Amino acid sequence: MSARPTRHRRRQAGYALVALMVAVTVMMVMMMAAVPSWRYLMKNDREEELIFRGGEIADAIARYQKKNANALPPSLDVLVKGKFLRKPYKDPMSKDGKWRFLRQGETIGATQVPGQAPGPMGAGATTTTTTTTLPGRSGGTSMTGGSAGGTIGAILGVASTSTDKSLRIFNGRTKYSEWLFVPGQPRIVGLQGGPTTNIGPGGARPSPGTRPSPGSAPAVPR
What we know:
There is one protein chain. By secondary structure, the chain is α+β, with helices and mostly antiparallel strands. The protein has one domain (42-198). Helix content is 32%, strand content 14%. It has helices spanning 3-67, 76-81; strands at residues 100-103, 132-133, 142-143, 155-159, 165-170, 173-175, 180-181, 188-190, 196-198. A hairpin with a 5-residue loop joins strand 8 and strand 9. The longest helix has 65 residues, at 3-67. The model is unreliable at 107-151 and 207-222 (pLDDT under 50).
């Protein structure tokens, strides 16, 4: 008589174990599916922060120049001490947080650009594989940055050290290392295959209120 209840309890325990295994499997599948979405959102947040921090540094350099007879700052700490910059922002796209500083008179694997007229950004900039045209210069001369942590000249601007592909298009560039933040330069942020928005100089960061979903274009300010 006692054997039947025992077999019944064993069947129930077996069913419960199967149900538990199914539930665990479903949870693992859902978690694996959520990982790309989470990574996408995290990258989107860091990208927004890069645009904000780079813009803040570029605007601080412009304010420093205005107050110091067009001179360029030697470091971010000088901008902070002079209250042109709230704090020495780090590069949100790189693990060590170090920027690639765009410096005056820099020669990194390229020859120096000749014939630059004096302007708000100084003279003596160089060309490398990543170039951008600075506003307010005669002849449309171009400027790019050099290696991270360099000590040549004063700071013209900053760029990320990350070579990852971006979600947004910034001034026509799709790699973070090619996003150059310099005073007076327009900051045109666009969607991959979508419209563009000018958020600078002195503009706000992309609105964090709207979160893009994986596979869709990231949000930009309206």
